[in-house]
Amino acid sequence: xxxxxxxxxxADFSRxxxxxxxxxxxxxxWLHIDVMDGHFVPNITIGPGVVKALRPKSQLxxxxxxxxxxxxxxxxxxxxxxxxxxxxxxxxxxxLHRVIQAIKETGAKAGVALNPHTPLDIIxxxxxxxxxxxxxxxxxxxxxxxFIPNVLPKISLLKEWAKERNPELYIQVDGGINKETxxxxxxxxxxxxxxxxxxxxxxxxxQAVAQLMESAQT
Length: 218
Ligand SMILES: O=C(CO)[C@@H](O)[C@H](O)COP(=O)(O)O
Ligand SMILES: [Fe+2]
Description:
- This protein has one domain (3-216): Aldolase class I (TIM Barrel, Alpha-Beta Barrel), CATH 3.20.20.
- Helix content is 34%, strand content 20%.
- The protein contains 8 helices and 8 strands, in the order E-H-E-H-E-H-E-H-E-E-H-E-H-E-H-H.
- An 8-stranded parallel beta sheet has the order 1-8-7-6-5-4-3-2.
- The structure holds 5-O-phosphono-D-xylulose and fe (ii) ion.
- Residues 7, 32, 34, 65, 174, 194 line the site of fe (ii) ion.
């Protein structure tokens, strides 16, 4: 089964609570929350306070994508605010194994994200420890960018590794997902799709959720 995680980055920030309740009702599986610090990526978004405010509005799994330097400093705060899954970028974690253990100590599921150019090898020796690998299919920092097709062979390779070593692994793809690119990433092996602008910039976001789920059933 392929899961859909709408990213609230493209929602109306003045009405986030309504946006979250809306996508839940439309049938989304998870909620993707993009946290940016203005250092690792050239944009600043939301912190634990917003996650805490949204938590009572939804039963969805809160999938928190931390695009921040020193993510280990914020794990407990995001977990306390209501995050169910915490994803850190391998590029900012020289002690990646330690950070994964720190995520698990909070009780959250553990994910590692890789930028489009970051080789898969960086997670080779921690694969069994992970609940999810997030493969970025745009350069992180902004919604509404175009899908980078070079990520497709990377998804296939990760799927191969996961089959042998971590068959329950969530393989999430984030960036430029729409009804044309969704079937391509699913075909390659993705099982969690993040979509921001395709959902929230659509004239009928519930229809966008339905279209994505349909196109993901390749
Ligand atoms: O992490 C990010 C961007 O850095 C994403 O989660 C975006 O929010 C996805 O937006 P679209 O590419 O779907 O518009
Ligand atoms: Fe994201």
